[in-house]
Amino acid sequence: MALGIAVLRGLEKKPFSKRIVAGISLALISFAVMVVDIQRSIKQEDPAAYAAKILVLRSRRIAELAASIEAISFQFFMNRLLNTTLSAYVNDAERYDISKWNTVFSQHMEGLAQTVPEIEDAIFFAIPDPNKIPLMMTDSLTRATYQPVRSIIMQKAIAASGKSVWDVCMGASESAAQNVNKLLVCARLITNIDTHVPLGVLVLLVNPDRIARAVSGSSWDEDANAAPKTDYTLLIDENSKILVSASLSQIGLQAQAQVPGFSEHFPLNKAASPSGKYKARALSGAKATQGLFWVIYERVPDRLWTLVSILPVSVDPLPLFFRIFIIAGFAASVWLILSVLRGGEATPDQSQPPAQHLEAIPDWFKALAPREKVVMVLLLKGLSNKEIAYHLAIREQTVKNYLHGIYKKLGVQDRFSALLLMQNAHLNIETIKDYAEKNPSEFSVSIDILA
Fold first, then answer.
1. Are 383 and 391 in contact (CB under 8 A)?
2. Can you give the pTM of this predicted structure?
3. Left, alpha or beta for 261 (phi > 0: left; psi -120 to 50: alpha)?
4. Helix, strand, coil share of the chain (percent; to 5)
5. Burial state string for 419-436 with b = 16 or more CB within 10 A and e = fewer than 16
6. Which of 95, 97, 101, 182 is nearest to 145 (CA)?
């Protein structure tokens, strides 16, 4: 402002020179480029900040899901009938006819699997006799499936002494690079309740697709028409192995080869920061071109697992030397203008009015249609699509159509993102109600519905 006043006063006293034109032009160009650079930086930071918030929620969900799966195996310690059944199975000399024990085991596991649908199957391997046919929840597992599981997880579970062990196993004929027959397993050593003698190892086979939904958050029925996600999320264990991914080809691989900048930036020790983010470059696309990516990570509560989300940066930042050049150009333009106007004084204008306070209601909310505003209010109150349809006396499909239009206008993908946008704008029922009382024409129904 002071510089502008000085220019105007100077022009009243000085002839309009080329130096003035050059200085003003250089200042405007430099300022425009700085504004563009700031906007590009904001576009980079916003998706990363949003992904970090989402990752916190997903990490809690993963912790809850893992705890519920591990609780299944703990019942074989606490339930005497189950423990006695396993003891009888282990101590019997029969290797092949195990139907009387398998019936009890199968019925119990099928009942538990209904409460935790992520469990796909279960196996119990006896420790004393490795050639004994294991107990299985279903009859769909073949020897080619459970033998690799036994060889990979058995000794790890025994060494863990009753603690749960998670790992990735593959069929005997499969390799780590293939997409089929990859099994995420949770194993625990089971001991006799009375004597504490090891009986065997219980292995729970987890459905990789179901747990991948909890990791990637890609299942939203009502937002099926939303734009596809460009990021992907991985669950990595303490040994840098990928346990869960939406892409089965990545499961079981080392994170160093899948996460950009993993070896240079990622914290590998327990004392490291539980969350963070960084930028890294990596080859991407069919043409294997260099791309810039955000890598956001969040430690899963009470575990040594880490959720890592990778999303591409759509706009590269300006190089540092170019930013320095812009700042130098702006400073040179100021010096050039002031040198021409060295006789003018730059005094601030004391008559300008004070800055107005920001309004509580953002412009994007005002731009919504009257019925869309009401739908957003009911969404904020926590109502489901069916409940919104009841309040407005419309069909549920009509509510979904309104939501799809709102998501498109706000640039979000789902209900959670819309609620998060309203939270960040400090929108609540009271502020919207006050606004509706002053502007009743902007709402399609009476403001009494907001009460």
1. yes
2. 0.57
3. left
4. 50, 15, 35
5. bebbeeeebeeeebeebb
6. 182
Q: How far apart are CA 116 and CA 163, in angstroms?
A: 20
Is the distance from CB of 403 to CB of 222 less than 8 angstroms? yes
Tokens at 360, concatenated: 């509580």
Three-state DSSP state, 289:
strand
Residue type, 292: L
The pLDDT score that the predictor gives to residue 317 is 55
Give the contacts of 152 (CB within 8 A, at least 6 positions apart).
167, 169
Angstrom distance (rounded) from CA 141 to CA 55: 35
Residue recorded with tokens 């002053």: 438
In the block, tokens 């699509």 appear at: 385
CA–CA distance, 330 with 20 (Å, rounded to integer): 14
pLDDT average, residue stretch 13-29: 64
For residues 129 and 95, the answer to whether their CB atoms sit within 8 Å is yes
**For residue 234, how many C-alpha atoms fall within 13 Å in the half-sphere facing its CB?**
26
Tell whether the model's pLDDT for residue 113 goes beyond 50. Answer: yes
Q: In what order do the strands lie in the sheet with 242-245?
A: 242-245, 232-236, 306-312, 289-299, 275-284
